[in-house]
């Protein structure tokens, strides 16, 4: 029995998951930076 399809699928799921999490974190960081800049400009 060949296990490579399962192994490759598992790696693909991890890569897509890490990429999605990284993108979501980056977008959240940009939003937080904009909010911090807005608070700084209010003074």
UniProtKB/TrEMBL annotation:
One of its GO terms (biological process) is heme transport. One of its GO terms (cellular component) is plasma membrane. InterPro entries: Haem_export_protD_CcmD. It comes from the Bacteria. Keywords: Cell inner membrane, Cell membrane, Cytochrome c-type biogenesis, Membrane, Transmembrane, Transmembrane helix, Transport. Belongs to the CcmD/CycX/HelD family. The gene is ccmD. This is Heme exporter protein D. It is a single-pass membrane protein. Required for the export of heme to the periplasm for the biogenesis of c-type cytochromes. The chain crosses the membrane at residues 6-26. It is found in: Cell inner membrane.
């Amino acid at each position: 029995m060949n296990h490579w399809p399962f192994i490759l699928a598992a790696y693909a799921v991890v890569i897509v998951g890490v990429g999605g999490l990284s993108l979501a974190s980056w977008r959240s960081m940009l939003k937080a930076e904009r909010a911090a800049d807005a608070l700084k400009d209010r003074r």
